[in-house]
Amino acid sequence: MTTADDDHALARDLAAEAGRLLLGLRARGGDRDDLRKAGDRLSHEFLTAELAARRPADAVLSEEGIDDKARLAADRVWIVDPLDGTREFGEEGRADWAVHVALWERDATGAAGGTLTAGAVALPAQDRVLSTAAIGQIHRARADASPLRLVVSRSRAPRLVHQVAGLLNAELVPCGSAGAKVATVISGETDAYVHAGGFYEWDTAAPVAVARAAGAHASRIDGTDLAYNREDPLMPDILVCRPAIAGLLLEAIREATHAI
Fold it and tell me: 189, 226, 218: which is closest to 96 by C-alpha?
């Protein structure tokens, strides 16, 4: 019988092994675009094959796969991003890309809702795996939390984030993939990740599972809960931060939203 500990360990082990495969592929070099496409394919095929073998009754939602809507009736759905930060993966020397593996489970009541129960974010080029299997001691606040540091996309930080940073006199810290960004919050390198440019469930499921296990706040930018395994996997926005500053950030977001 599968236990919660088994699921935590499986998420961690699969993310880590996919990361090792990607490092091996990257080390062989080649054309950047070809490398990115090969990385997406290699990691997706590995993760889906392993999940089919180890959890054959579970559904899978992968960025690189066909979205089988049968997952909407499933009690357990693995949500994976085989290569989060494909652009960064193709650039020599970049370490801010990740592999995401998360498990969503339906509420015991059988209602339509569910929750993320396991997850892992592998950061292969940083030799790190953040996992719900062992995360409690990782989350810590920065020793000097003034000014606030907001981690943002290197290439497409939304206007809202600049507005929030201006209101709070916060410093913007550029970073690549969503998983790498949330990792900076969990490890105390930054204070918050705010994004309103739109992305998908696979971009955030594993980072949110790990962040919550670490004691961080994770919600939509209006403070409402993040929902997964929905018919449309598009996810408009996210806030991940230290719990102590969640109220401050949500208020600044409200003010900035009204100003835009």
Answer: 189
Would you say 198 and 234 are in contact if contact means Cβ atoms under 8 Å apart? yes
Domain co-membership, 10 together with 117: yes
Query: Tens of pLDDT along 85-125?
Result: 999 999 989 999 999 999 999 997 656 689 999 999 999 99
* Whether the predicted model's global pTM rises above the 0.85 cut: yes
Which class for 87: exposed (0-12), middle (13-18), buried (19 or more C-beta within 10 A)? middle
Q: Within 13 Å and on the Cβ side, how many CA atoms surround 226?
A: 29
82 domain-assigned = yes
Q: Using only C-alpha atoms, what is the Rg of the chain?
A: 18
- Residue 47, domain CATH: 3.30.540.10
Residue 203 lies in a domain: yes
Distance, in Å, from the CA atom of 211 to the CA atom of 40, rounded to the nearest integer, reads: 24
Domain boundary at 131, 158, 192, which?
131
- Tokens of residue 185, six digits: 């919050």
Of 83, 99, 94, 75, nearest to 12 by C-alpha is 99
Average confidence score pLDDT of the chain: 92
